[in-house]
Design brief:
Layout lengths: L9 H10 L6 H11 L4 E5 L5 H15 L7 E4 L3 H15 L6 E4 L5 H10 L3 E4 L1 H9 L10 E4 L2 H6 L3 H9 L6 E6 L4 H10 L4 E5 L8 E7 L5 H11 L5 E4 L3 H13 L4 E4 L5 H13 L4 E4 L14 E4 L6 H8 L9 E7 L4 H11 L4 E4 L98
This protein binds adenosine monophosphate.
Adenosine monophosphate (AMP) binds next to helix 3.
Length: about 475
C-alpha cells in the first residue's frame, strides 16, 4: 500500500514525500480510509506509530474540500510540547493548501494567539486550559468545529484534564466527526470514548508493548551511585543522543546542572521552566546543541525527537505504561535504540510488576565498578561554564547520599537481583543512528499484542 491509494490531494502527497514517508504505517493504513469516509474512530496506539499523520492527513483533506475562515478542526493534546509538535507537522502538510493552523497553550502570551484567531484559523491544536481560557474570553468560536481529535486521551486523564475535556465538548456542535487516540484504555477513557464516539471504527496498534528495535537493560545500582553511573555510561558507551528520566522536576534540574558542570552538553525539560525555556531545551536537543536531555515524564509522551539513541530511566518509572512511553522515545519509526533502567533495591517490586505487565523479562547487569568519573571529551560547542569545570568531579547534593564523590570499589551496595556485586560487564560499544532529518526510515511495524493491564501507580509522581 502507498499514500496514493488514499486518493489524497496532490499538495498532501507532495508534503508527505517531502517528509520522506514512502509507505503508510499500520495505523495510517487502517485509520485514514475510515476517517476519510467521515467515520468516528477510536485509535489505540502508542506514540511512535505514526498516529499524528493518521489523523492530520484526512482532516486536512476534509478541510480543503470546503475552505472557510472558522475553526473547523480541533485537536486537543495534553502537553504544550505535543501540541507544538502536532502543529509543526500540520504546518508542513498545509503549506500549499491555503489553510491556517494555530497552536494554543498556556505559558505564553494570549494576545498573539488572539490576534491569529482574529485573522482566521481553520485548525487549532490546543491544550485544554488555554483553550477554555480563550473560549471564556470569547476569543475563540468553537461552534463551527466539524472534527474533534483527542490525542493521548489517557495522558489527559492522568493529568486531570477530563473535566476540561467535557467542558470543551459541550461547546462544540453536536454533529461532528470525533477521533479519540489513546495508548491505553483505563475505565475513564472507555467511558469518555463511549460518550463522545458515535459508532466508531476501532484501530488497535499494539497499545501496550515496548517498541520493537529497542534493547532493554536493567542496571542494579545503589541510589547514591546513580549520578556517577550515568556519567560513566555517558562517557563510555558512545551515547549519541540521550534522554534521561527523573521522577521529579527538582531532580531533573539538579541532575542536568551536575552534568553541565561535568562538561556534558546537557539541559533539562521539566514543568518548572517557562514555556520559552521548555521550547529552547527541546529545540536544542533536537538540533544537537544538547546531547543529553534530563526530563520528567512531561517528555515521555508524544515528543518526537528523531534519532534518540538512548533512554535512561535514572529513576524507575511507576507503571509499565510509563516505562513503555519513556522507552518509546528511542527506536522511533523503525530505528534502533537502547533503554537503560537504573534499579535500586527499593525498585525490586516495581521491576517485577513491570516485567509481569510487559510479559517479558528485562536483561540485567550489575553496575560496573565505577572508576573516577571521566569527563567527556571536549566538544566544540560544549555547554561548560569554565574550562576547569570540564574536569571537575561533581559533588552529590548534601541531601542525597553523603558520598560526595565516586570511590573505587564501592559502586554496588545493593543488588536488586540478590547477587554479589559483579565484575564490570563486557562493554559493547555501539554507534547509534543519529539522523535528525524529517523521518525517512523504513517503518517497522510493531508486533500485534494484547493490552497490558494497567499497573497501579506505586508512587505519587504527578507534577506537571
Ligand atoms: P507519531 O506516532 O505521530 O509521533 O510519529 C512517530 C514518528 O514516525 C515521527 O517521527 C513521524 O515523522 C514518523 N512517521 C510517521 N509516519 C511515517 C511513515 N509513513 N513513514 C515513516 N515515518 C513516519
Amino acid at each position: 500500500m502507498n499514500f496514493n491509494d488514499f486518493q489524497l490531494n496532490n499538495h498532501l502527497i507532495q508534503a508527505i514525500q517531502q517528509c520522506g514517508y514512502t509507505a503508510p504505517t499500520p495505523i495510517q493504513q487502517q485509520a485514514i480510509p475510515s476517517i476519510l469516509a467521515g467515520r468516528d474512530l477510536l485509535g489505540l496506539a502508542q506514540t511512535g506509530t505514526g498516529k499524528t499523520a493518521a489523523f492530520i492527513l484526512p482532516t486536512v483533506q476534509r478541510l480543503m474540500a470546503a475552505p472557510g475562515t472558522q475553526v473547523r478542526a480541533l485537536v486537543v493534546a495534553p502537553t504544550r510540547e505535543l501540541a507544538e509538535q502536532i502543529h509543526a507537522f500540520t504546518q508542513t502538510m498545509i503549506r500549499q493548501t491555503g489553510l491556517r493552523s494555530l497552536a494554543v497553550y498556556g505559558g505564553v502570551s494570549k494576545s498573539a494567539q488572539i490576534a491569529k484567531l482574529r485573522q482566521g484559523v481553520d485548525l487549532v491544536i490546543a491544550c485544554p486550559g488555554r483553550l477554555l481560557d480563550l473560549h471564556h474570553d470569547q476569543a475563540i468560536d468553537l461552534s463551527r468545529v466539524e472534527v474533534l481529535i483527542l490525542d493521548e486521551a489517557d495522558h489527559m486523564f492522568d493529568q486531570g484534564f477530563l473535566p476540561d475535556i467535557r467542558r470543551i465538548v459541550r461547546q462544540l456542535p453536536l454533529k461532528r466527526q470525533n477521533l479519540v487516540f489513546s495508548a491505553t484504555m483505563p475505565d475513564a477513557i472507555k467511558h469518555l470514548a463511549e460518550n463522545i464516539l458515535n459508532n466508531p471504527a476501532t484501530v488497535r496498534i499494539n497499545p501496550s508493548r515496548p517498541v520493537q528495535g529497542i534493547a532493554h537493560r536493567l542496571i542494579a545500582v545503589a541510589q547514591n551511585q546513580k549520578t556517577n553511573l550515568l556519567m560513566h555510561l555517558l562517557s563510555e558507551e558512545s551515547m549519541a543522543t540521550t534522554l534521561v528520566f527523573t521522577r521529579t522536576k527538582h531532580k531533573a534540574k539538579q541532575l542536568a546542572q551536575k552534568l553541565v558542570t561535568a562538561g556534558f552538553k546537557a539541559t533539562s525539560l521539566q514543568g518548572n521552566l517557562s514555556q520559552n525555556r521548555r521550547q529552547e531545551a527541546l529545540a536544542g536537543f533536537k538540533s544537537g546543541t544538547y546531547t543529553v536531555l534530563v526530563a520528567t515524564d512531561i517528555a515521555a509522551r508524544g515528543i518526537d525527537v528523531t534519532g534518540i539513541s538512548h533512554v535512561i530511566n535514572f529513576d524507575m518509572p511507576d507503571t509499565a505504561e510509563t516505562y513503555i512511553h519513556r522507552t518509546g522515545r528511542t527506536g522511533r519509526a523503525g530505528r534502533l535504540g537502547e533503554a537503560l533502567t537504573f534499579a535500586t533495591g527499593e525498585d525490586q517490586q516495581l521491576v517485577r510488576v513491570i516485567e509481569r505487565s510487559l510479559d517479558t523479562s528485562i536483561s540485567r547487569q550489575d553496575a560496573p565498578k565505577l572508576p573516577e568519573v571521566s569527563a567527556p571529551r571536549p566538544h566544540p560547542v560544549a555547554v561548560v561554564k569554565t574550562p576547569a569545570a570540564m574536569h571537575r568531579v561533581p559533588r552529590e547534593s548534601k541531601k542525597s547520599s553523603g558520598i560526595s564523590r565516586p570511590r573505587r570499589g564501592c559502586a554496588v551496595q545493593t543488588n536488586i537481583f540478590g547477587l554479589p556485586a559483579a565484575a564490570p560487564p563486557n562493554k559493547t560499544k555501539k554507534r547509534m543512528p543519529h539522523d535528525r532529518a524529517c523521518v525517512a526510515a523504513p517503518y517497522t511495524a510493531p508486533d500485534s499484542g494484547t493490552t497490558t493491564n494497567q499497573v497501579r501507580s506505586m508512587r505519587a509522581t504527578k507534577e506537571e
